[in-house]
Design a protein that fits this description.
single chain; alpha/beta; Immunoglobulin-like; Rossmann fold; 3 domains; 7-stranded mixed β-sheet; 10 helices; 22 strands; 28% helix; globular
Length: 416
């Protein structure tokens, strides 16, 4: 009978990797027949850990390119074909890559070993990491009444990626469509609901604190007689709280060692002749991860200021491991200018906790980021969440260890 293997990291990481199967045993693959293993991984941390263990005994590929959101990724037909033809498919977790479940239902591979590398029982909650925004605008009961045939002629900037509950969505409408007597109104629409006006949202910039539900946003421009003459296309605001769990587990150098162990066991299962080779490589990389952990402990253990402020709550594992406090302000956009009220709020937060730096996730500082820093009298620094790995980083010789050390150096600007 044909069968599909599945490896779960929820079971023992050291003694074995459990394989769910039916029918006959899988035949040896990989170097046993002078053919390299084919391993398909989802995104950078899984790819990096796999490469460190497999080295040149497997062809390891990655399907999520740099700059692509791993949460909302949709595998192409080519991706599905590559996974079907692979010996091993490795991903982090259903919380990080929620599309994997549907993908597995569509596969018809005979002997694919599927590896979830992150232990579900090691996840931490996201409920206490987000800083509450001080104000929230609720929809009014007024429904939108306008010509459905009115074209979407207004552009909206500021949307990037997904949001968490409590994040402040900041959008800005295209000013070229505004006339001298223009009236501006922003609207939201939940699932199976009509468009409703949002109180207080009557300017070019939209600022709105999210709840736990997805919703659409649009802006409408009207003349003096309240007759709409321009509108934007609806923009979807997707809320993804990862079921209340933080999936960025690879940012903990200790828990990363568990992921390496799971990957090692899967490689051995697929290629038993390479057992000693994989074990030696895994041991070498785990020693590097242990040294990295020791560097974090040495640098951060005696600090008196243990608070750091981030734009997005992706660094909870570093905070938990090294007894720090992560405060995520949420909703700071590097694409549009923050409102004066938002800047004042962030400034008050920075003063309250006496932190000199606001951290942005991976990417170059924008002019708006610099503006926020100037207005709040704080520096702007980058922390790498390692969800993606650009060609530029690769060309500069960076890898997991070097980027994590960059994170440590950046954190020491706040934690001292």
């Amino acid at each position: 009978m044909k069968r599909k293997w599945f490896v779960s990291s929820m079971l023992s990481l050291v003694t074995s990797v459990t394989l769910f199967a039916c029918g006959q045993e899988q035949s040896d693959t990989g170097s046993s027949n002078n053919t390299k293993l084919s391993v398909v991984t989802t995104f950078y941390p899984v790819y990096e850990f796999t490469k460190e263990v497999a080295v040149d005994r497997a062809d390891v590929s990655i399907i999520i390119e740099a700059g692509t959101d791993a949460h909302g990724f949709e595998p192409s037909a080519r991706d599905v074909a590559a996974i079907n033809d692979a010996d091993i498919f490795a991903y982090s977790s259903g919380e990080m890559e929620p599309w994997v479940g549907g993908l597995m239902d569509s596969l018809d591979s005979e002997d694919l070993i599927t590896v979830r590398t992150a232990k579900a029982d090691s996840f931490i909650s996201t409920e206490t990491h987000e800083h509450d925004h001080q104000e929230s605008n609720e929809p009014n009961e007024d429904s939108l009444e306008m010509d459905e045939d009115l074209p979407a002629s207004v552009e909206i900037d500021g949307l990037a990626g997904h949001y968490h509950t409590g994040d402040v969505v900041q959008l800005v409408s295209d000013a070229t469509a505004i006339k001298d007597s223009t009236k501006i109104q922003w609207y939201t629409r939940g699932a199976s609901e009509d468009w409703k006006t949002v109180s207080g949202q009557t300017k070019e910039t939209f600022e709105y604190e999210t709840t736990g539900d997805n919703f659409d946003v649009k802006v409408v421009f009207s003349d003096e007689a309240d007759i709409p003459y321009a509108q934007s296309a609806p923009i979807e605001i997707a809320i993804d709280d990862h079921e209340g769990l933080d999936p960025h587990i690879w940012l903990d150098p200790v828990l990363a060692q568990d992921q390496v162990m799971v990957i090692k066991e899967a490689l051995i299962q697929a290629d038993p002749d390479g057992k000693t080779y994989y074990e030696e490589n895994a041991e070498k990389f785990i020693l590097e991860l242990q040294r990295l952990d020791e560097e974090y402990v040495a640098a951060l253990s005696s600090a008196t200021n243990r608070v750091f402020v981030v734009q997005h709550q992706a660094f909870g594992y570093i905070a938990q491991r090294y007894n720090l406090e992560q405060i995520a302000v949420g909703g700071i956009s590097t694409e549009i200018e923050s409102s004066p009220s938002r800047i004042a709020e962030i400034s008050e937060l920075v003063k309250q906790h006496n932190v000199p730096v606001i951290y942005y996730q991976q990417g170059a500082d924008s002019s708006i980021a610099q503006t926020v820093g100037q207005e709040t009298e704080t520096a702007i620094e980058v922390l790498y969440d390692l969800e993606s790995f650009s060609k530029g980083m690769q060309d500069d010789g960076m890898d997991y260890l070097t980027l994590m050390r960059k994170n440590l150096k950046a954190l020491q600007l706040s934690i001292h």
